């Protein structure tokens, strides 16, 4: 008589995967099956399945909670952005632009410091800073190394260039270039926390505000 082939663990696994209904009606077998557990005594297959389902439910609830929290944050970000854009649209002069940015960035977004460098011949007051020197403009552009925005910890000299003022308290920054027709500059926000702005962060919001400024600034009267 020929000997039956020996079943391997892989054969059993494949059989159960092909026949997921195998244990239906075999309650006694399920109750007798024991599964060793690293953190305690063996449990029945049914108990183990229930535990797995509970763990998955906890994971799913956490994922749902994270999605809802992200949606809530996105709604808040949209509302804050909307208020800032409307304030910039309503600004009648450079003082209005400064007030709109300062009110939004400091109160709504809680930044520790901010500055807007504007490559122009106009005369502006901090934190709106006019950059007249062509060489200074080129040096500022080089900080971005071809990117639209930069984010994270930078050398103190680079932070000082982006903020244009005493920046000894600023330890991390996020900056986006303002790129318009004959209307260029940089919008920078800063934090005293070295790890607040990280190189891995998304700069979509800052890019968006920079785009709005690129469209709005040429409409602001001189003086």
UniProtKB/TrEMBL annotation:
This is DUF484 domain-containing protein. Gene3D superfamilies: 3.30.450.40. Transmembrane segments: none annotated. It comes from the Bacteria. InterPro entries: DUF484 (IPR007435), GAF-like_dom_sf (IPR029016).
């Amino acid at each position: 008589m020929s000997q039956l082939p020996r079943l391997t663990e892989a054969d059993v696994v494949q059989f159960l995967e092909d026949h997921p209904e195998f244990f239906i009606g075999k309650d006694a077998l399920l109750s007798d099956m024991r599964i060793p557990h690293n953190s305690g005594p063996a449990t029945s297959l049914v108990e183990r399945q229930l535990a797995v389902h509970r763990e998955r439910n906890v994971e799913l609830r956490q994922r749902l909670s994270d999605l809802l929290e992200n949606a809530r944050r996105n709604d808040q970000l949209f509302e804050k952005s909307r208020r800032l854009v409307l304030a910039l649209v309503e600004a009648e002069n450079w003082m209005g632009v400064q007030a709109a940015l300062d009110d939004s960035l400091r109160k709504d977004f809680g930044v520790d410091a901010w500055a807007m460098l504007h490559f122009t011949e106009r005369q502006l007051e901090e934190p709106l800073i006019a950059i007249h020197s062509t060489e200074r403009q080129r040096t500022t552009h080089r900080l971005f190394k071809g990117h639209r925005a930069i984010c994270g910890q930078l050398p103190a000299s680079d932070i000082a260039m982006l903020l244009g003022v005493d920046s000894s308290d600023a330890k991390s920054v996020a900056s986006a270039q303002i790129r318009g027709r004959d209307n260029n500059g940089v919008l920078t926000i800063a934090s005293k926390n070295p790890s607040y702005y990280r190189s891995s962060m998304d700069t979509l919001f800052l890019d968006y505000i920079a785009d709005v400024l690129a469209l709005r600034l040429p409409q602001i009267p001189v003086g």
